[in-house]
Design goal:
Blueprint lengths: L19 H24 L11 H27 L3 H27 L33 H7 L5 H9 L2 H29 L3 H28 L4
Helix pairs in contact: 1-3, 1-7, 2-3, 2-6, 3-7, 5-6, 6-7
Length: about 230
């Protein structure tokens, strides 16, 4: 089975019957992914939006691409080897929806005539000129890149290596813990650009990320409980 293939329909669940809300949660995530994909492809070849981007819009587009890239990496790692249907479906949904969002953010910067990266510290945009905002930007100048990535909920190189080496339920539980923390780091970024940003499409995507990842956290915690994950 290749990465591009949808989760196997042949695998049968061996655990207890999953609650009906889980099915609806997966459907909602799929609809969200489709909406983001439509939004992404509709921007190609279009004229830039009338509302010009500010520092928050630009910083969010850059930093969330970095954040999403690791989420996709972790999701595809567990997707390839998990034997749990729920973990595989959730990983597939996260990988596909965040790949679509990352592509749209890349296109924003192209349309705005800006490079995909800058020398500014991660999350510096989260505090505006008056010092108001998410709070991370106020101290980002004194933090290392590794510390900033940890503040964004991202996994360390050692944690990624552990995920790659783990198998079975151990791998599933490690993935769920890392991805929950990863999502928890993305939500404040979305909230900051909702407060500080200016481009309507950026604000709409951020609202979708906040709502979608909050729902995914709840779903992943339910799977953790079913699997008996600890820590």
């Amino acid at each position: 089975m290749t990465d591009a293939e949808a989760p196997s329909a042949e695998r049968t669940a061996s655990g207890p019957t999953r609650p009906a809300w889980w099915v609806y949660a997966l459907i909602a995530v799929g609809i969200g992914a489709l909406a983001f994909a439509i939004g992404r492809f509709s921007t190609f070849g279009s004229v830039p939006t009338a509302a010009g981007p500010n520092a928050a819009d630009i910083g969010f587009a850059r930093d969330m691409q970095v954040h999403h890239t690791q989420a996709i990496e972790m999701a595809m790692e567990i997707y390839r080897k998990t034997e749990d249907d729920d973990v595989q479906r959730m990983a597939y949904d996260i990988a596909t929806s965040q790949a679509g969002q990352r592509g749209e953010m890349f296109d924003w910067l192209v349309q705005w005539g800006l490079p995909q990266s800058s020398t500014d510290p991660l999350m510096a945009w989260m505090t505006d000129a008056s010092g108001h905002g998410g709070g991370h930007g106020a101290t980002s100048e004194s933090m290392t890149d590794e510390e900033l990535r940890a503040a964004m909920g991202m996994a360390s190189a050692d944690e990624i290596a552990q995920l790659q080496a783990a198998t079975g339920t151990e791998a599933d539980c490690l993935y769920l813990a890392l991805m929950i923390r990863h999502h928890e780091g993305a939500i404040p970024m979305a909230e900051a650009v909702i407060e500080l940003g200016s481009v309507p499409r950026v604000l709409a995507v951020a609202e979708g990320i906040k709502a979608g990842q909050t729902a995914e956290i709840d779903a992943m915690r339910s799977v953790q409980a079913r699997l008996g994950c600890t820590g």
